[in-house]
Amino acid sequence: MSIKQIRKVRDFGIFKKLDWDNTIPDFNHFNLTYGWNYCGKTTISRIFRCYEIGAKHSDYETATFEIEDTEGNRYSELSFPSKLNIRVFNTDFISDNLKWNEGIEPIFMLGEQNIKLQGDLDVEKINRGKVLEKLQRQEENERGIANKIYSALSNKASEIKNTLILTTFDKRHFEPKVIAVSKDKTTSLLSPTEVQNLIEIYRSTEKKAELVPLIAKAPNIPALHKEINDLLSIIVTAKVIERLKTNSELNEWVKMGKELHNDKAKCEFCGNDLPSDLLENLNKHFSKDYDELLINLAKKIKETESQKINLSLPDSANFYTEFQSIYQKLKSDAEKEIAILNKTLQTMMEKLEGKKTKVFERVEVGAVIDNVNIVSSIIAKINDLIKKHNQKTSEFDKQKVAAYEKLITNYSLEFARTQKYEETQNAIINLSIEIESTKAEIIQIDKKITSIEERLSETVKGAEKVNEYLSQYFGKEDIKAKVTPDNKFQLLRAGHIAKNLSEGEKTAIAFAYFITKLEDKNTTLADTVIYLDDPISSLDSNHLFNTYSFIRTKFYDEPTRTLKCKQLFISTHNFEFFNLIKDWFMKVKEKYKSFYLVERTTNDTKDESKIIQLPGLLLKFKSEYCYLFSLIYNFKQTPSKDFEQLYNLPNIIRRYLEAFAAFKYLSTRNVDENLDQLITDTVKCERVRKFIHYHSHSLSTNRIMQFSDIKECADIVDIVLKAVETIDKDHYNSLVTELTPLAISATTS
């Protein structure tokens, strides 16, 4: 079996919602994945290891995931406890297999055998095969019965879904209903006519939405009529200028002019001196009572306008059919009477408006139509109709729910009787008991086989093989494994118990142990999928080339350029190791290799990873320095929170500046000590120092996720790039000219 894709992952570590992107290549014979720390590479290896051990990862019990092999078979987390022919080297393998304070568990390898014990072993294996055949027959029988009843449940559920036009209804919804009625032997089934009537009630689609009752505050016409008449009857007493009284337009023009000439001695129009008594006479004409009346008229006009009725009457189509004709008549009457009422109010407003030019004489509204009671009565009738409409809507749902429950109960009862559901379930239970008994029998046989195999094991040969690989890995016989009296592996350095092992030594020992286990009696390398997750320690890469050579020798046949294993996956964060493996894979035919990048996206709304095709720039660049520059420069061009490396931008800048200082000044100091030389502006230098120091010098995932806002990131990138350009403009221009097109092309491809 070869693995084609990781179809989907849900809630497994950083992979919140991963669906395989069909635009990227499927897994191949040779597969290389690159990604920075905390991006999710180890999580991917853990998914593979779940299929190796046949169990979910203990830290992610609620995770769901699915892979697909090249034959189209799919395996989800529900496939357990089935184990697949996969071997994974990652931190979990090291944790599960190597106890540094207790010694390493021995590897049992079958060698020269005791004839008597081997004979006993053969007998037990034959016996196990017979019992296993019995178990397979029992399980097939159980599956046959279960599949038949479950298929019937699914078919009936599908029939119900189509009949009742349900959005969601399958075996999971139907079976609990069947179980609930399976013991009922007395209730009568509904007749076909009754069933059809209930179906028509449930499938009815004439339900209307509830309507909002009308709210309208009707004016008090008699009271308003009296108030307006009282206001219109007011006559302003003043020293009236007759020509202004008889000419309303002239009156308004002079009133405006008076306001413009207060406290002035000359005419603003002609420039001549104003008559000494002109303003005095005008003030007597336009008295305080005059102004007060105009103010009261304006207020009453506004008040009257506000009492007009403006109702948005619903369309008759919004009512049930039986109410539509009644409502249409009421609506027509309402619109007619409201128009009359509003016209009455408008007439009174017009009288008020006319009074403004007749302040020195009495005015009357005259008789008006008061139809407020008629309007209120019509609105009340409409609201009563809306109430009836809404009541029918409410009962409509209850009738549908009741019809649905009766139908489902009847369908369930009919199915339980025709399919003999209760009898079938009892048969499945009895078979399950038999299966468990047979499994217990196999367990006892397995214990006998294990006991014999342990006696036949050659622990010493296992230790010798580990030592052989350790020697190849380290290039010397420094660390060795010795078998203890209780069949453990004891690690020795120069003949003494090894203590204070470095992370690099631990990784090497663990990897040698992993390779040795691939040669045990339970593994056929040619049929095995191998997954190697970061075989280079993060803290010690002194044995980089040894590790690379070790892997290549073990899993690759140089003359034929083919794998010795079924499929090979390698993931790493180490750029040097990535380049070594990449160069090796590039020599393989194109159709046998695939390259990937695990990318983590962090912004205000999400923090998750995805698997994408390796960008072209990572295939082209062999220097991490060039790659880092392209990331920084591309961010300068598109400073967005969706930028794929934004969460690690401080670390990118720190690593780039360290590399630049190393070759520019032959410096061995850390970047913090070189910043003053690189960035001479003290304020800008301190901003960069704080940015890279605070955000990159922590292994805490939470700390790495806490980056500055987008503007701060853009400012820092601009400072750094300008500093490099100032110090070495030719070098900077070469990077921009040669590297940027590759990066842009790779990003958009």
Question: Would you give an account of this structure?
Answer:
With 749 residues, this protein is of the alpha/beta class. 57% of the residues lie in helices and 11% in strands. It has 25 helices and 17 strands. Strand 7 (98-99) and strand 8 (103-104) form a beta hairpin.
Which structural class fits the helix and strand makeup?
alpha/beta
Strand numbers in spatial order across the main sheet: 6-12-15-3-16-17
Please give the largest β-sheet.
6 strands, mixed
Q: How much of the sequence is in beta strands? A: 5-15%
Number of strand elements: 17
Shape: flat
Termini gap = 32 Å
Count of helical segments?
Answer: 25
The pLDDT mean sits at 82
Question: Considering DSSP H and I runs of 4 or more, what fraction of the residues is helical?
Answer: 55-70%
Low confidence ranges:
105-115, 697-707, 743-749
What is the CA-atom radius of gyration, in angstroms?
Answer: 45 Å
